[in-house]
Amino acid sequence: MEKSPSRLTRLYDWLDERTGVKQFVHEALDEPIRGGARFAYVFGSVLLTLFLLQVATGIFLTLYYVPSSDHAHASVTYIQKAVPGGSLLRGIHHYGASVMVIVAVLHVSQTFLFGAYKKKRELIWISGGLMLLLLFGFAFTGYLLSWDQAAYFGTKVGTNIAGEIPVVGPLQQRILLGGNDLTTLTLSRFFTTHVFLLPLGLAGLVALHLFLFRRAGPAGPYHERDDKQVDLFYPKQLFKDTVAIGLVFAVLVFLALKVPAELGPEADPTSDYLARPPWYFMPLFQLLKYFPGKLAIIPTVLLPGFVFGLLFLLPFIDRREERHPRRRPFAMFSLVLVLTGSLGLIALAKYEDRRDPEVSRKLKAQEEEMHDFFSAPFEPQQIGTAPPEKVELAGPVADPPQAYVEDCADCHGARGEGDSGPHLIGLVGKPRRSKDDLMKIMENARSYGLKKPMPKSFPEITAEDKQKIVEWLASLKAKK
Amino acid sequence: MSDQIESAEVTSTGRRSFLGILAAGIGAVITAVLGIAIGRFTIAPAFSTSGEAVWTEVGPLDEIEEGKPVRYSVVVSQNAGWGRFNFQRPIWVLKKGSEITVYSAVCPHLGCTVNTSKDDFICACHNSKWDLSGKLLGGPSPRGLDTLEHRVEGDVLQVKYQDFKQGVSTKEAVS
Prior knowledge:
Distance between the termini of chain A: 77 Å
Shape of chain A: elongated
Radius of gyration of chain B: 29 Å
Number of helices of chain B: 1
Strand order of the largest sheet of chain A: 1-2
Oligomer: heterodimer
Largest interface: A-B, 48 and 40 residues
Structural class of chain B: alpha+beta
Order of helices and strands of chain B: HEEEEEEEEEEEE
């Protein structure tokens, strides 16, 4: 081999002469890691991979996604229910967001625990803090894009919180929304922010973060006696990083396949949907309950501002060189306080929702509505006016029940032949249109993907009348 | 420090390739899973159809002008991903007494819209020319104008709108 180098080696040499690839690989892989490779150091690499994974899945989701309030929900439903691989890609993107928050918290905690933000590493820490803020920006803007009930009402609350901030609030809210209400313009600007502005910002910060990190070198263990062994990044640390990345990826794929990313019925601004934020915003949500009226500024602005302010200033406040956690009791206490406090608030929010019978009933009903919608087969959205479908009755039918005449005939025609609404001939027996389904549709049309003006519920029709209507509909057979 | 690094390099040579191959393997699995999902996701529409051709109404027969081509628009429903799009498509109707011919106004060459000029059909994009019977008179079009199936229900002219493969000498429906 050594005497006559293989073709691959010759190609590598050829490339190296022209690109300097060997030097680059050397720089990338042969970084010394004081104290040896550790699983404690994997979080940065995992985060970088997650970011790339979000970029890859996100780019391809836009092949079908339409950032318009008219079509956003239809396009996401299509991705989720109809496109091969769509549920998997959307699932990875959906769960990837949550996992990124978790791993970011672990990464920050590890850096904090090891005192790796001190001397020479202040800017690495600050660029990391900025990235954490961008991460929440991603979460907030991405949440709206599906335009389902949770997205719409969750974002409504979120933008209202932004509007409550004194002085700058109202203008800030109008800029966020693109007007005075949550409209298709809001969706467009959230989309642009989510897929162009934030990724550009984050990519830039990642580059800066990595550059500064490589320049300063890894901080290494906090205990000097552990300093003896030195590994190179390749292969031990790279292997540990890859194992962690593989594990996280496996979890994402498993979740995406087993528990597909949620998608509820399309946003209906007239409904009384009970909005609950995703788990990572839940601590703030819970705190909001304790600060009514003008005091709401405490949990929405002052507290997060204080925590992030402290985070950014930390390397300048805590200037001692001591890195051992045991000798930094106050720092450790703060870390535990923030983490357990956040987890506690999330648990408390969940607990209170379950304890309040009214709220828990409402949330449960919403969940059922979501599952009904989710399990319904995909129906393409009708664009423009469809040419009228000519369907004729196979034979004479009995007169419709009185309830049909009063509540249905105006739109669906005196004999179910259709008018402003679709015809109902031959309806019973179609997929998801059994007699049971039709009873349920009259309970809640939206969970079957039906839209206005089909009423959401028919409270004025008695169960007995509904049964009569369904029986009569079953008699409407189409002529072949 | 520097001899520590070297010693690390020396001691790790044995496991070096093994861990490296394992890591590369994990990376390959991730890339494959993601690549296959993205690949299927991306090419899916290439294998879907826009829907079967159905009869759509052109208009009342006796309102169609006699003896010369008249341009109409028919509503065509087309499946495209998340939507079913009901769009208008141009056609040419030629009525001579009881004889009716319906042409697609899509040029068989590259798909521009066919127009009339004096007593001929022309496509101004690349100067293809047909006579009123749809026969190719000149230009780059590979075939005559495509006729569309039609029928008369009651007194209403109906047409089955279809798209045909472009650039080939035979008329082949595509969906």
